[in-house]
Write a structure and sequence with these properties.
mainly alpha
């Protein structure tokens, strides 16, 4: 997170900070609610320990949440994905897929193997990083790749 200011400036950095803060507060709230539920389910033997953990969770700073090995990277990933959703075109995934289906053609000088590598790179490494889902479920199937290569 400390490196990001040099790559993001102005509105982008402010938006990322706001998204990280909102995600941190949501994580803090979920953790406190989980501990309160644990306290209610407890028979009273661990009341002091659980109250202490709730107090510690309430006083954690944003930096401590982001440094947490279990939750910090999730918070930053969600914030960056929300930022990408904000900055990119609304239908960026549809635009990329339409381009690959209709306009992406092999150049005369390019070998078929290189063309296939370019298409696979876009399909497996770039499309999964696009909104709205940010996963591999939105990539092309093998049949669609074959159609792109043959037409």
């Amino acid at each position: 997170m400390a490196v990001l200011p040099q790559f993001t400036r102005g509105f982008v950095w402010t938006t990322l900070e706001v998204k990280c803060h909102a995600a941190t507060e949501a994580t803090r709230g979920r953790n406190i609610k989980a501990k309160e539920a644990e306290l209610e389910a407890n028979d009273g033997t661990n009341k002091v320990r659980i109250n202490g953990e709730i107090a510690v969770l309430s006083t954690r700073t944003k930096a401590q949440h982001l440094a947490d090995a279990n939750q910090g990277h999730v918070i930053v990933t969600k914030a960056i994905n929300a930022l990408l959703t904000t900055l990119m075109l609304n239908k960026i995934l549809q635009c990329v897929k339409r381009y690959l289906r209709r306009e992406a053609r092999k150049q005369l000088y390019m070998k078929v193997k290189n063309y296939l590598l370019h298409i696979n790179h876009i399909n497996h490494e770039e499309i999964p990083e696009l909104p709205p889902n940010f996963n591999t479920a939105q990539s092309f199937s093998a049949d669609e790749i074959t159609d792109i290569l043959l037409h």
